[in-house]
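Folds abound. A case:
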Amino acid sequence: MASKEVILIASGDLRLSANRMCWPAQKAMEQKVTAAIRKEGCKVRRGHPYKKAERHGFIASQKEGMEIFRDIPNDAPLIVAEAVWQFSHHVLPGLTTHKGPILTVANWNGQWPGLVGMLNLNGSLTKAGVDYSTLWSLNFTDGFFKRGLREWLDTGRVTHDTSHVRDLRNYRLPDRNRTVGESLAADLQNEKAIMGVFDEGCMGMFNAIIPDHLLNPTGLFKERLSQSALFAEMQAVSDKEALAVRSWLERKGLTFDVGKKPKTELTDDQILWQCKMYIAAIRIADDYGCDTIGIQYQQGLNATCPASDLVEGILNNVDRPPVKSREGDRVLYKGNALPHFNEVDECAGLDALITNRVWRSLRQPPETTLHDVRWGEHYKGRGVNDYVWVFLISGGAPPAHYIGGYAGTTSYRQVPMYFPFGGGTCAGISKPGEIVWSRVFVEDDELHMDIGRGKVAKLPDDETQKRLNATTPVWPIMHGITYGVSRDQMMARQKANHIQVAYARTADAANRCLAAKAAMAQALGIDVHLCGTKNGVTD
C-alpha cells in the first residue's frame, strides 16, 4: 500500500454558513495530514475540489457524496479527514461499498468539533458494519500519529490499546445491585414504555437511530412524532403561560443574557417561544404517554423558531417549571424529570430511561444528560493531576448538574452560525462529584453498552474560561475524568459523538448505580462492557 496513491476526502456540514466559517481550520489540518503522508513516501490526492463559489471544500450533501464516490477507485486507500462537525450521511453511502482501507482522522483541537464529527462517523461506520481504522493528533508530527499512520499505510489497519474494556459476563455483580437491575428490567419489559421521537435522524447521525427490532425487545417502543406538530402546539400556548415559565426560572436564579439584536443576541421574544416549546413538548409527551422524548431541532425547526436547548436542559431537571394539562386539571409529570435525549439520539434516549429508573430506585439524583466528547487536556494544579476531558453538549444540560444549580445557570444566545433564529442555551459549569458515564451503540446488529466510572473536577475559573474559549463559550461544560481510561483508549473505543453522564452522591453510591445499571441493561438483552476501574463489581 505504501506505493499507492492515498485519496483524502472531507465531509462537512449541511449549512453553508458553517462550512464557510470552518473551512480555514479544515484546510490547515489537511495540509498537515498531507505532509505527514508524503513523508512516508506516499502520494496524496484530494478526492473532490475546493468549491470557489461556495468558498469551501467540503462534501456538503448526500447527493454530492454519492457523485464524488463514483470517481474514487473502489480499492483506493481512503482517508476521511475531519476538523469540523460533519454529517455522516454525506459520505456513508460511498463508504459502505468502498473496498479499500479506510482511515478516519481528526485534529486534537476544540475550536470546531472535528473530534466530535469523527466519533460520529466512527459510530455510524460501526453500526453499518464497515471496516475502518481511526487516528487523531494535535499536530500530526507526534510519535503516536506517525506510528499509526505508518501501520495503516503498511497493513491497512491501525491497532489501539483497548485493554480497559472487559465483558460484564466475566464478572459477578453484587447480589443486591443485580437484583435491583434485573427487577427494573422485568418491569420495563412487562409494562413497556414509549420513546417520543420528534423527527428521526438528526444531522446525519446514522449511529443515533436504533432499529425497532433491536429496541422493542427492551420494552421500549417509538412514538414517531413530527416537529411540525410541536410547532403547531407552540402556537396554542398562551403568552401568559409562557411568561409564567420564565418567571419561575428567574425566581430560581436562572439568568437570561438578553439583548436587543435578534440576529446576534438573545431577545425576550426568543425566550417567550422557547417557553412555549417547553410547555408544548410536555403536553404532547403526555398525550402519547411518552416516558422519554427527543427533539431533533436540526434540521427543520432551526429554520422556523428559536432553539430547543433551554427546553432540553429544563426537561431533564426534576425541579422545573410546572406544566398543566390543556384543561388545567393536572400537573404533568409532577415531581419528575421528563428525560430528553438531545439531537434525538435514540441510543442516549434508551440510556437516559435506564438511568432514570435505576437512579430513582436507588434514591440518587436522576438528572442525566448526554455530552459531546469534545476535546481535552492534561491539567495539573489545585489537587488535580489528570487528563481532564471537555464534555460539552450543544446548548442544554440540567441545572441540577451545575455549580449553584439554577443560580449557576445562564441562558446565552445560541451560535448564529448554526441557529439563525436564536434561542437561549441552558449553560453552566458542572459541579465536582462522582459520575457514571456510558454509551449505548449498535454493532453487529446488536445493542451494546460501554459503562464506566469517573468524576467531575473543579478547575480554576481561568482554566474553565480558557477551555470554554477554546470550544463554544455559550454551551454547558463538564470537566470529566474517566477512571482507568486514557485519552487514546477512550478515543479508540468510543462509538459515538455523545457520552451519557449522571451523578451519584458518593463514590460508593456511584458503584452501586453502575452495578445496577449494568445489570438492568444486561437483563434487557444489551451486551455490556465495563470500561476502566472502580466499576462496582467483584471478580
